[in-house]
Amino acid sequence: MNDRDRDIPVLVWEDWAEALALLSLDLALPLFEVMGLDFDEKQNVQPVLRELVRGHSDTLRTTFPCAGHPGMVEDIHRRILSLRGSEFVNQFETWFEDIFRDPSGAWMSYDSAIVKWSAKFRYKRTDLLDLGSRAESLSALYSDLVRTRTTTIQNEIAIVKTVGLSEWDQFVYDLRHYCNDEETVTLKNDRADDLVLRYPFLRIEGAIERNLFQLFWQQFVTEINDASEELLWRLGEAQSRKDLPRPRSLKRRFVW
């Protein structure tokens, strides 16, 4: 096992396996842009991802991959590097960490904080962030984000689902135990041999939500003053189980 794979925690292994499988799907390709993967010639990346899926099918077949499977993450980096270069690899890694995973939960915590503020402001006229004259316009901006996310997820995924599974998608669905039923149990069992059907669009929806929220956030944080930033940080801290970065220090780290 190489140094890169040896140092990767088990949960991150599973996230890499999930990202690799999902992004190889024909169903996922129309959703790349709204997930933040807005680069040229997207279709040229999928053949490489599919080679990787085939080469690491034993890793991807298990419900909960462990760090005993060597080479998968290194192979992903090596193959994408040879296809698109180091700048693309760095962007892809950043997308994986900030959009697909959000391991710190910072984006989700601030998203939840603004949900709470917006609801209070719109329905009870209570401005938890003390935004003054900016409150109305920023609340409207957030409402636009919510509508965009809802319609994007509902419409785009609904369209994708009507297409049906290609031969490749059926292979990946069988490999990863996917099912398009939204009511499917998504929790993993402790035993790797337990068959647990999972809803693949759950992670795709999460990526779409974080991508669109980050685009909103870039404008939102430029509109708040120091006092409002402190209030927002406190509101976010109440939603977080980890130390939360200050709002202005939390930035979208890539642009495709």
Short description:
By secondary structure, the chain is mostly helical.
Tell me the number of strands.
0
What are the secondary-structure elements, in order, as H or E? HHHHHHHHHHH
Helicity, as a percent range? 55-70%
What general outline do the C-alpha atoms trace?
elongated
Describe this structure in words.
This protein has 256 residues and is an all-alpha fold. The chain is 60% helix and 0% strand. It contains 11 helices and no strands. The chain has helices at 3-6, 10-23, 46-55, 57-61, 72-84, 86-101, 106-124, 135-163, 167-176, 201-220, 226-239. The relative contact order is 0.16.
Topology:
Layout: H1 3-6, H2 10-23, H3 46-55, H4 57-61, H5 72-84, H6 86-101, H7 106-124, H8 135-163, H9 167-176, H10 201-220, H11 226-239
